[in-house]
């Protein structure tokens, strides 16, 4: 393992790679600081820059953006009571009260250190546990992979959004889109209508850029581009957090970090859910909070921020070991790797160890960069919130188009992107969550090919699913994931 | 710079895939969308018809598969060597999709000036049989094949059969499941051809790529897999796989302990390969110049070093030989696809 | 099941999903049966699921959507139309010229009024992206009928390293 870490470190310390990490972190912090610009959108829109890069370098840029944006979402949460990314929503509870007391600088420093602790814990977890999981997954056959994909699909539908039917419809739509193209098992062309660009299916990345770039842009324009917004006038001074603050947040950051990794590693549960749970747990466990939670307790900020950043590395665990994305950003990362013919899954740990350890070591370094830039730059980042949206959105729209065109060097994918954008906007407007669609797109081919391959191997007998204990347990879990909330919502409706 | 020279260069640009399919080549030419990004600063380089010397401007090689794969990496090595052996720059672009047919069609529909070349593989002999695209060996001008990737049958290390004979006697009494890296891929075809030559019935099981096919073979879901011999060499030497035999006519250096299929009584040489080609109707003098350059490239030290360091075999077929080979493969694959009954 | 006309009117999307899914089932039912579970199995299964959940959606009248009155639908339509036009123009004008034409319009629509700001962004952003993609990343971008972009000087080698 040591030799792999050294190989990874050698790759990461290449000047161009370092440049990409710094650029990724800075862009991530910039976009994350602006309310409405999510980590998912930024990664989707800037993905095209990595198409011709070496996959390791490309991942460094994207992971830098990911970590940076999840961290900096806390800055507007603290300053203007608006989360920069959804995962910073729980940071508002204690961050904003501190800011009102004139202690925004202190709150941001706490959030920076906690993000760093959570991030580092998650990367260490990723580095040590994911190889074990991948090793076990090497024994997984088609029935187990089918069960895993099914589990991912059901859990995403049940955790995202308020309405189970809407989540399910969104996920099923994604799955349906994923069936376009040559059927991987029989070679039959499904819904291709003679269009050669459709033979390999609707391009996932083009759809992602549409859903998270174009649709978000349409939403931003329809709610009104507001350059005035909430101005930040508070000055941030000082660089290092105080020793007493560090002592106060140490244990809660560590505990939230560990919890965040676990939550993040559940397919579909991303930073927003992780932060809410870790914040809630912190308020339950810490009885002696002064000031109490919700009134500007630094430990509240630390719990939320460590939790959401820890979910980043956690989300990569199922992504890299099984090819099943932990959240929307890691779904795009799968797409990014597949552009380079790198297929995430257990075999990755056998064949691409250097790439993997480059990712691990690089992601660790990215969190060091976030700590350094976060502490040194806090004074400047707060100004970013005042950036003019009217200049940003046109640039994002252009980047969306260039991203789709550069994907395969043709305009067809740009039209797909535009269509996905229009659909995504309408869905958002009607309250349909988009995350299930993303997971549906990625997971449907896994679910379908493994189900059908299982059946063809077993000669059509469904025994193959319950003779495998692992597959059976996961399938039962999936059923429960759908059935429990469905029953609960029905019973609450009838009692209401 | 006169307007004439600008529009001449626009007409000169190769057709590409912007918003169109293969059948709409005339529309495409009218629109003139192009994948070429030449930014030559002076007039002389912008003009250039088919009567001109080759190369008179940037040469673009289209890799129909994504960056990082074998076609892309070897094409870049060819382009690098081409650049040092000509006065112009060589650029590799990736136009993927349609199992490679999108990029190959773009080249097949380009102006035949020799400034747009493409990379191709056995798939070009399969598209028409599989109904993927109306593109076959007759639609291109073959230039040179530069590598060969023989197929091998691999089984897991401690399985009951580690030789072809043992495998065949097992297969006579049991239903054998053979993993491949994708339906209609050249590896699927190789496996099918081998089973046919060996006289056994196998169930072909498709996986999304070589890695999952190998994983399935190792964990016992499939009995064997047909994969590129050189690709799996390290896993055979010190890993979980045993290779039954290589479908090639000579012993591979990278698999010193694995005999050829021929030496085990199954006379078959099949697998995958990579070649470069030009659009059809290429003027003879241009073709001559390109082939000469390719001969130099093939023998150049930089190309040799690249191929050796990256475990690609150097195997050459010149234009005429390649044309014959393509025609022969086209017929052969046609028969195979019919036997396999792949839906198209 | 109580399907009120009100529910139908308030969930036009659910209706569209049901119709769309039905069309997909119609198509997929003609797919050949390949092996135990053929290529039509998943599209049909997924579409059936969509129809079921869309029916639930209709019955429950659960309107979890954003408040439409807060949203200027026309503005979203205009943005969509502008990007649409941008894509239509791309094969003709090429990426460089197309973007130089698109940006002033969308910037103006976003509320930017300063001519200097509009001019600077509309020129510098497309040029920067053009150089980054075509020369640094070697990604082919559409050139258009008249490839003006070929007239641009190549970047000196040191910039690319």
TrEMBL record, chain A:
**Domain named DUF112: residues:** 18-439
Q: Which UniProt keywords apply?
A: Membrane, Transmembrane, Transmembrane helix
TM regions (residue ranges): 18-47, 59-80, 107-133, 145-161, 167-186, 198-215, 355-378, 390-411, 431-451, 463-487
Q: What is this protein called?
A: DUF112 domain-containing protein
From TrEMBL, chain C:
UniProt keyword Transmembrane helix, yes or no:
yes
Keywords assigned by UniProt, alphabetized? Membrane, Transmembrane, Transmembrane helix
Domain DUF1468, first and last residues per copy: 16-142
User: What InterPro entries does the record point to?
Assistant: DUF1468
Tell me where on the tree of life, at the top rank, the source sits: Archaea
Q: Where do the TM regions start and end?
A: 12-29, 41-59, 79-109, 116-138
Pfam families in the cross-refs: TctB
Asked whether the keyword Transferase is assigned, the reply is no
Q: What is this protein called?
A: DUF1468 domain-containing protein
**Native species of this protein?**
Halogeometricum pallidum JCM 14848
């Amino acid at each position: 393992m040591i030799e792999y870490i050294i190989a990874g470190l050698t790759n990461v310390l290449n000047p161009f790679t370092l440049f990409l990490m710094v650029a990724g972190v800075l862009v991530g912090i910039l976009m994350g600081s602006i309310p409405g610009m999510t980590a998912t959108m930024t990664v989707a829109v800037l993905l095209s820059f990595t198409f011709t890069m070496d996959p390791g370098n490309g991942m460094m840029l994207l992971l830098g953006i990911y970590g940076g944006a999840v961290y900096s979402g806390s800055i507007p949460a603290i300053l203007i009571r608006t989360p920069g990314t959804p995962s910073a929503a729980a940071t508002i509870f204690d961050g904003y009260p501190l800011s009102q007391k004139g202690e925004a600088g202190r709150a941001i420093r706490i959030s920076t250190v906690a993000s760093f602790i959570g991030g580092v814990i998650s990367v260490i977890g990723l580095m040590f546990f994911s190889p074990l999981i991948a090793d076990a997954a090497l024994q997984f056959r088609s029935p187990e992979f089918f069960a895993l994909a099914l589990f991912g699909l059901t859990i995403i539908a049940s955790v995202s959004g308020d309405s189970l039917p809407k989540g399910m419809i969104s996920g099923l739509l994604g799955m349906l889109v994923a069936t376009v193209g040559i059927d991987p098992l029989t070679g039959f062309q499904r819904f291709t209508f003679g269009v050669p660009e459709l033979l390999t299916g609707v391009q996932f990345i083009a759809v992602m850029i549409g859903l998270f770039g174009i649709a978000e842009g349409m939403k931003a324009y329809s709610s009104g581009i507001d350059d005035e917004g909430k101005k930040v006038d508070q000055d941030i001074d000082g660089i290092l957090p105080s020793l007493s603050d560090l002592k106060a947040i140490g244990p809660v950051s560590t505990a939230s970090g560990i919890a965040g990794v676990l939550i993040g590693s559940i397919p579909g549960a991303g930073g927003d859910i992780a932060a809410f749970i870790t914040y809630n747990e912190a308020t339950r466990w810490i009885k002696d909070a002064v000031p109490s939670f919700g009134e500007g307790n630094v430990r509240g900020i630390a719990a939320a921020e460590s939790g959401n950043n820890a979910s980043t590395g956690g989300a990569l665990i199922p992504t890299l070991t099984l090819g099943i994305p932990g959240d929307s950003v890691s779904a795009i990362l799968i797409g990014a790797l597949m552009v380079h013919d790198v297929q995430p899954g257990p075999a990755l740990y056998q064949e691409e160890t250097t790439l993997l350890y480059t990712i691990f070591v690089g992601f660790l370094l990215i969190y060091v960069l976030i700590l350094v830039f976060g502490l040194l730059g806090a004074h400047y980042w707060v100004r970013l919130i005042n950036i003019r949206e009217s200049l940003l959105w046109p640039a994002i729209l252009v980047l969306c188009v260039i991203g789709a065109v550069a994907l395969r060097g043709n305009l067809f994918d740009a039209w797909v992107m535009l269509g996905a954008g229009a659909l995504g906007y309408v869905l958002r407007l009607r309250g349909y969550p988009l995350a299930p669609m993303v997971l549906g797109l990625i997971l449907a081919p896994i679910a379908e090919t493994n189900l059908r391959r299982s059946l063809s191997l077993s000669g059509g007998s469904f025994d193959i699913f319950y003779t495998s204990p692992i597959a059976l347990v996961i399938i039962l879990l999936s059923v429960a994931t759908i059935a429990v909330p469905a029953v609960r919502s029905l019973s609450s409706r009838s009692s209401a | 710079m006169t307007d004439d020279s600008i529009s001449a260069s626009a007409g000169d640009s190769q057709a590409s895939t912007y918003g169109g399919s293969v059948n709409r080549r005339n529309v495409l030419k009218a629109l003139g969308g192009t994948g070429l990004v030449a930014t030559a600063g002076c007039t002389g380089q912008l003009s250039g018809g088919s009567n001109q010397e080759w190369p008179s401007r940037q040469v673009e090689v289209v890799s129909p598969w994504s960056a990082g794969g074998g076609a892309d990496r070897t094409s870049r090595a060819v382009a690098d060597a081409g650049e040092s052996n000509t006065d112009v720059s060589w650029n590799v672009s990736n136009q993927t999709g349609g199992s490679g047919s999108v990029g190959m069609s773009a080249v097949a529909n380009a102006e035949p000036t020799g400034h747009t070349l493409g990379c191709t593989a056995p798939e070009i002999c399969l598209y028409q049989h599989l109904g993927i695209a109306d593109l076959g060996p007759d639609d291109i001008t073959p230039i040179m094949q530069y590598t060969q990737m023989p197929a091998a049958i691999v089984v897991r290390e401690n399985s009951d059969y580690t030789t072809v004979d043992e495998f065949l006697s097992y297969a006579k009494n049991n239903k054998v499941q053979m993993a491949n890296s994708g339906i209609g891929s050249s590896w699927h075809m190789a496996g099918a051809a081998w089973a046919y030559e060996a006289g056994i019935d196998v169930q072909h099981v498709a996986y999304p790529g070589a890695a999952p096919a190998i994983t399935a073979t190792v964990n016992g879901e499939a009995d064997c897999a047909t994969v590129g011999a050189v690709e799996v060499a390290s896993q055979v030497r010190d890993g979980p796989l045993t290779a039954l035999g290589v479908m090639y006519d000579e012993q591979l250096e990278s698999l010193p302990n694995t005999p050829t299929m021929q030496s085990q009584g199954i006379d078959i040489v099949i697998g995958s390969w990579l070649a470069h080609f030009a659009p059809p109707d290429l003027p003879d003098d241009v073709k001559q110049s390109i082939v000469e350059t390719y001969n130099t490239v093939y023998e150049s030290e930089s190309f040799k070093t690249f191929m050796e360091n990256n475990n690609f075999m150097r195997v050459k077929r010149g234009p005429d030989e390649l044309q014959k080979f393509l025609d022969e493969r086209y017929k052969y694959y046609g028969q195979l696809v019919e036997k396999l009954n792949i839906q198209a | 099941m109580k399907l009120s006309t009100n529910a139908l009117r308030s969930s036009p999307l659910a209706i569209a999903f049901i119709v769309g899914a039905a069309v997909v089932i119609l198509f997929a039912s003609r797919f050949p049966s390949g092996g135990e579970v053929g290529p039509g199995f998943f599209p049909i299964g997924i579409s059936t699921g969509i129809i079921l959940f869309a029916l639930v959606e209709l019955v429950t009248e659960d309107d979890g959507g954003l408040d439409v009155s807060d949203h200027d639908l026309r503005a979203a339509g205009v943005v969509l139309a502008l990007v649409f036009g941008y894509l239509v123009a791309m094969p003709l004008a090429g990426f460089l010229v197309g973007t130089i034409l698109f940006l002033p319009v969308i910037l103006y629509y976003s509320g930017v009024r300063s001519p200097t700001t509009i001019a600077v962004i509309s020129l510098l952003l497309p040029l920067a992206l053009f150089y980054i993609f075509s020369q640094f990343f070697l990604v082919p971008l559409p050139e258009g009928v008249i490839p003006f972009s070929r007239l641009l000087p190549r970047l000196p080698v040191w910039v690319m390293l």
